Amino acid sequence: MKVLKMTLGLAAASAMMVACNQNPNNGTTAASATETTAGTPEIVYVNSDSLLANYEYFKDVRSRLQTKAEQKEKDLRTQAESFQKEVQRFQQNAGGMTQQQAQATEQRLMQKQQQLQALQQSSGNELMTEESEEMKKIYDRVEEYLKQLSEEKGYKMVLTYQRGNSAILYGDSTLDVTESVVEALNKTYESEKAEADKKKEEVKKK
């Protein structure tokens, strides 16, 4: 029986392209970004690979989902091994069974096999659903911050860049705001974690 294997879908996260206050008629591109009168570029970009590699919230989500997937895989493997032992015992003892007993045992084993297959499928679907929900949360977090940043800095558009899989062939490094974005996101996440830990301690004391 194939055992569940779960991997975090990084491809879904690479869709983090956020257009903030975009003017479709301004005719600008990443290679020829215009600047505001204050000298601030109207178009900047974020390296999605670097963002995900350094965003603590994403790393925590990935770790938690991988741990959950490994536990589910372990449980499924244990049940699959137990089922195989039952099949082997049946094969060894089938000669001493009546036809009715053998048919009843075969039917029971077939039903159990179907149940295990259904459990494997449902476990995989559950993990995929949870992963999709978590990636949406990450996207929403990044989008919310980039909108706020764009309002503060006067950016018209924030593009995403991923080496080997991007419409941006070249971007001046001065337009790369990845580091500052990751720093701000991590700072916010650290504050949220500290607040959550504080609330947990207060609940324990009650």
TrEMBL record:
Where on the tree of life does the source sit, at the highest rank? Bacteria
One family name in Pfam for this protein: OmpH
Q: Where is the composition biased (Low complexity)?
A: 93-121
Region forming the signal peptide:
1-21
Where do the record's region annotations for Disordered lie?
Answer: 93-132
Q: Does the keyword Signal apply?
A: yes
Question: Does Signal count among this protein's keywords?
Answer: yes
Which InterPro entries does this UniProt record tie to the protein? Chaperone_Skp, Skp_dom_sf
For this UniProt record, give its keywords in alphabetical order, as a comma-separated list. Signal
Family statement drawn from the similarity comment of this UniProt entry: Belongs to the Skp family.
Q: What is this protein called?
A: OmpH family outer membrane protein
**Which source organism?**
Pontibacter anaerobius
- Name the lineage: Bacteria, Pseudomonadati, Bacteroidota, Cytophagia, Cytophagales
